[in-house]
Amino acid sequence: MAHKRKLPPPRKLRTDAQRNRQRILDVARQAFTRRGANTSLDDIAKAAGVGAGTLYRHFETRDALVEAVYRTEVEKLAVAQRELSARLSPVEALRAWMLLFVDYIEAKHIIAPALNTLVAGPSKVYEASRSHVQGAIEALVKRAIKSGHVRKDLEPFDLLRALIGVSYVASGPDWRQSARRLVDILISGSRPVK
Amino acid sequence: MAHKRKLPPPRKLRTDAQRNRQRILDVARQAFTRRGANTSLDDIAKAAGVGAGTLYRHFETRDALVEAVYRTEVEKLAVAQRELSARLSPVEALRAWMLLFVDYIEAKHIIAPALNTLVAGPSKVYEASRSHVQGAIEALVKRAIKSGHVRKDLEPFDLLRALIGVSYVASGPDWRQSARRLVDILISGSRPVK
DNA sequence: GATAAAACGGAGAGTGTCTCCGCATTGTTG
DNA sequence: CAACAATGCGGAGACACTCTCCGTTTTATC
User: How far is CA B55 from CA A141, B34, B170, in A?
Assistant: First the structure.
């Protein structure tokens, strides 16, 4: 009656299962990038050389798959936060991170809908991603507030919403420029009143 | 060889066609509000007591239907712009209009995806709506710039993007509050530098 | 009321989602 | 390594939604 036994039974996947899982992820990443976020899941399964059942067993919903595909990238944002905070002044770090966010979205425009679910409310699927992004923006904002160069009542989540929103918006030819100008406006509007 | 004859042949609809068209619009408005933006179009047709063919004849795409359903509401935004401009200081008018936009979206959260297509690029379908909204924000921003209380390089379209983006973002419990705080930040960030 | 034009409607083809379950693979045990 | 249980596979098929096509019905006109 010892050892781990009760609640979380994190079974080890059989080797073939691991292989398939990875294959699906690889194919999905390509497919999402090339053909947009609503590529047929059955197609992805086929391209990965597995049956539809296998895909759905590994990723119960489309969101779950998207999340898995982009998890590593989200983690990069968290890392960047730490790095920028160490290197730049509070406000500059915040600005730089926001710009990074924009660039990062531009490359993978697909994930915007996914990120959206992120601020939507408790959703098991995105729990991990959420805490990363949320943690990053909170750290940045708190530090900036402490430095006195940003208004005290600034809600980190508001900025996150704005960023995600802007990312969500259709990407015309000048999307990136527009997004960057908006980051400037947001930063400038975040300064203390008077 | 006289009279209008060439380009725009705006045929008058047969009375049954008019009736059906209206019925579809009514049902669609309800359905969108109650069951979200991706209610089955066949269901809407059924609820309106017409065949699927009829629905698609009147509205070639889902977007076209959404656009038609919300056209009047978008027009209200254009009217409000004029009214606010006449009554308030340039910056206050801008702020008020943006807040109105937020409220307006809150009520019909469905149209966000539609509005999105609006900034996406030339799309016949949304031409009318686009020109309304675009005209409104441009007038407001231009006036505000002229008054000197807003930076000269402010792009009206940027603000529009931000508004739509924020509207697009999932509506949690405090969505409205957050959106309103963001409008404040945007306005404040739009002031002239220094 | 006869005729042509306009509009209708719904069956069905095409496509995507997701489940179910008989069969195959894996890894463990003696 | 044989044999067995657990684990995982896969794809057929049920279901849902979109959109079209065309024979039938309704409307407007004379």
Answer: 50, 19, 29
